[in-house]
C-alpha cells in the first residue's frame, strides 16, 4: 500500500520506523485519511513476521496537534441533519464515528507487537492519546516539546482512551488535574508523572 501521510521503513533488525509527515500541512493532524492509513500500518506491522516492533515519530518539527477539529464539526453537522430523518440511526452513526479513533488506538495497543512513540515536538490531544496507547514513549529533552490533552479547553473531554491510560500511568490526583485542566506538560514533568 502507498501512504500519503506516512512512510514505513523496516531496518535489518525488524524495527519499523513509521514517520508521520502529512503533506501540505504545517503540523500533522488526525484526519479520516490519516486514520485509514495508520489502521493499515498497524495491520502491516501486526501481520508481518519480519517486523518485531514499531517506532512512530514525526517528520515535522512538531509531533502532532491532535485531531482536525473540523472532523468533530462534520460529525455533529451530519448528526443534526440526519436526526430529523431517523434519530436512532443518526445517534448510532455519531457513536460509531466518534469511536473510530478509540478503536484504532486500542488496535495498536493490542496488535501483539511493541510500539514506541518518539515525541519530537508538540504532541497534543489525539496524538498524545495515541502515544499513551503505545507500549513506550520517549520525548526529546527540548523546550519545544509539549504534551497535553487540552480538549477540555474547548468543552470536550479526551475521547480516545486518554482518560483511561493517564490514570494507569500516574497517580490519581495528577491524572485528575491533567484531564480536567488541559494542563500542558514539559518532558520533565511528563517523565516525573510516569507518562514518558
Task: Give a concise summary.
With 196 residues, this protein is α/β, with parallel strands linked by helices. The chain is built from eight helices and seven strands. Helix 1 (32-47) runs parallel beside helix 4 and helix 4 (100-109) runs parallel beside helix 5 (126-133).
SSE arrangement, N to C: EEHEHHHEEHEEHHH
CATH architecture: Alpha-Beta Complex
Class from secondary-structure proportions: alpha/beta
CATH superfamily: 2-enoyl-CoA Hydratase, Chain A, domain 1
Major pleated sheet: 5 strands, mixed
How would the global form be characterised?
A: globular
Count of distinct strands: 7
User: So what's the CATH class?
Assistant: Alpha Beta
Write up this protein.
By secondary structure, the protein is α/β, with parallel strands linked by helices. The chain has one domain (6-193): Alpha-Beta Complex (2-enoyl-CoA Hydratase, Chain A, domain 1). Helix content is 43%, strand content 15%. A 5-stranded mixed β-sheet has the order 1-2-3-4-6, covered by helices on one side.
